[in-house]
Structures are given as structure tokens and as C-alpha cells.
Amino acid sequence: MKSRGEKITSLTAYDFPMTRLLDEAGIPLILVGDSLGMVVLGYPNTTHVTMDEMEHHVRAAARAKPRALLAADMPYRSYQTVGEAVANARRFVAAGAEAVKAEGGREIIPQVCAIVAEGIPFLGHLGMLPQHVLEEGGYHVKGKKDAEHQALLADADALVNAGAFAIVLELVTPPVAADLTRRIPIPTIGIGSGPDCDGQILVTPDLLGMLPWYSLKHVKPKLNAAEQMRAVVKEWKEGVEKK
Ligand code: KIV
User: What value does the mean pLDDT of the chain take?
Assistant: First the structure.
């Protein structure tokens, strides 16, 4: 798609109906993200998500048998060593995933090479890395300083050489995301990284307005699902109570 100049769209799903709906809408890349922890399981950040929880949701999403490529996110501390990375990536494939994603650049290259050598497609993730929220003390935009720009370029090149098929760029400054997109041969898929990536990914409940308790600069919900759900439930409740 990158070589044809076609924009790539990707969304997250965590269960059977959402995977099926996204697939029927023609989304080509569906990610069972570890955002699961925050948008479904109620954790304060993604560092609490376990392999067992991810696997349960990957299985549910895979039951939709999407035509889309189904990728699974490797959770916090599930790819610390090459052995763990390969074993956990295999677990996701056995659960129905067709690709895996993990956060990081040069520091995880041995793990990426081993996963790719297993024949498992690998999706990179650079920029703001949510699994590093505790060390970094928050979610910070990356690429503002020249040193960050150079580090992102080196990480992206390393992921390309290790065999990644695409790279998610999260909260990277738009000019740096555009520069990376021009320089690397594989697609960049941006989230909060400006319009010039090869594709865009969003956390589906953010797009649908299902989580009214916070707002994000980079997503303007296209639906107010939370409000509509509350109204429908209230109307149904009142209807039952009147009888
Ligand atoms: O976990 C997730 O949903 C992600 C996307 C934000 C890219 O990693």
C-alpha cells in the first residue's frame, strides 16, 4: 500500500463483535492493543496488562476470522528476553494472531530478529511508548529535540533491518513523523503524529466516543456513543418501570 501511495487505516479491537464490525467496514489492519488494559479492563495504564488477559482477547477477536491482518500487542515485560519474546509471540499466533507488535527500537532488536526468524510478522512501535509511562512520568510527545529525532531515525532503521513490516509512530512531532515516513521503506502508521504518515491508527473506543471520562488532543470522536448508550438505557429503564 505504501508503494501504491494508498493510505493505511488501522483500528484496535478487543473482542468478536468489534473485530467483525471493523472488518466489515474494510479496515485492513486490526490490532488487539494492550490499550485493552485502559479502555476495557479499567487499569490506570498499560503496565498492568498480562499475557493471559491479552491472549483471552486475541482469541475472541480471532473468532471473527477477519480478512484484515490481525495483530496482537505484546504486553509489558512479555518480551524482556529473546526466549520470552519468541514463546509469547508463538502463544499469540496459536491464539489466532497473524502478527505481533512490541514497543521499542534498538534495545529490542534481538527479540525482533528472533520473532521474524520464527516467521511471525512484526509491527514496530516508536515515539511515545505507553509501557514506559512510569519511568517517563507521563505521556510525552517525542521528536521535539534534535537528539530525539536522530534516535527515532536510528530506531526506525534498526527495526527495518530487523524485518519489521511497519512501524506505529505514537505522539511523534508531525515534521519528524513525515521525515521518518520519507526515509524508511516500510509504512509508518501514525497516532497523534500528524497527517503525513503512510497510515493512521486509533483506539476504537476513542474514535467512537465510548470513554467520556477523558479527552485526547489527537482524537475528535466521530460519535458520542457513551451519551447515546446512557440515553437508550435510561429510556428502556423508564419504560420498564412505568408498566
Ligand atoms: O495498545 C494500543 O492500542 C496501541 C495503539 C495506540 C497503537 O498500541
Answer: 98
- 124-174 pLDDT tens trace: 999 999 999 999 999 999 999 999 999 999 999 999 999 999 999 999 999
* Cα distance between residue 118 and residue 122, in whole Å: 10
* Cβ atoms of 168 and 126 closer than 8 Å: yes
> Taking the model in full, what pTM does it have?
0.97
**And the C-alpha cell for 79?**
518480551
What are the tens digits of pLDDT across the range 34-77?
Answer: 999 999 999 999 999 999 999 999 999 999 999 999 999 999 99
Is ligand 1 within 6 A of the CB of residue 103?
no
Domains of the chain as residue ranges with CATH: 8-207 (3.20.20.60)
CA of 235 to the centre of ligand 1 (A): 34
CB of 36 within 8 A of CB of 14?
A: yes
Alpha carbon nearest to ligand 1 atom 8, residue: 33
Which atom in ligand 1 lies closest to the alpha carbon of residue 130? 8
Distance 35 CA to ligand 1 centre (A): 6
